[in-house]
Amino acid sequence: MSTGTTAPHPTGRREERDGETFLVFERTFRAPIDDVWAAVTESDRLARWIGVWAGDPAAGSVAFRMTAEGDDVPEETIWVDECVPPRRLVMRSAQPDDPARLWAWQVDLAEADGVTTLTFAQGVTDTVLAESVGPGWDYYLDRLVAAETGADLTAIDFDDYYPAFQAHYRAALA
C-alpha cells in the first residue's frame, strides 16, 4: 500500500502557510484516497499507529488519547476546524507544556494514478519544539505506513528517530 523506507531519515521540511511556520511531511500510499482518509480519521484505524478518539467531531471537538506512548497518557481535546472528506482535515489542540498556546495541524490528501499522497503539517515556531515535534511525526507517520502495509510496528523504534533527527529539525527552523 505504501512507499515507506527501511532506514528512517528526517523527512520534514519548513513551509510558511498564512504567515505561520509549519513542519510539513509527506507519505505516499498505493491505496484509494478513501482508505487513507479512514486510516487518519477513524478511531479504530488510528489506534493501530497513534491513538484513539471519542466524541462527536460534528460538535467541533473530540477527546484524543495517544496509545503508542503508554497507558498513562492524559486525554486531550482536539478541536476540528475544517473537515472535508476525504481531502482535508484541520485541527488544533493545546500544547502540553503551555496550554495557552495551540498546536495547528493540517492533513491534506490527494490521489493520482492509484497513489494517495498524505501531506501532514504542524505549526511550529520554536526550534526547541521542532527538535521533538519533527522526530515525533517522522516516527508516527512511519508507524502509519507500517500499519497500512501490514508491517511490524514493533520494528519502528523511537530511539532511531530521537535524538538522531534533532539537528535536522533545529536547522529547519533556524
From TrEMBL:
Domain Activator of Hsp90 ATPase homologue 1/2-like C-terminal positions: 30-146
InterPro entries, sorted: ASHA1/2-like_C (IPR013538), START-like_dom_sf (IPR023393)
Source organism superkingdom: Bacteria
Record-linked SUPFAM superfamilies: Bet v1-like
Family: Belongs to the AHA1 family.
Protein name in UniProt: SRPBCC family protein
Lineage: Bacteria, Bacillati, Actinomycetota, Actinomycetes, Propionibacteriales
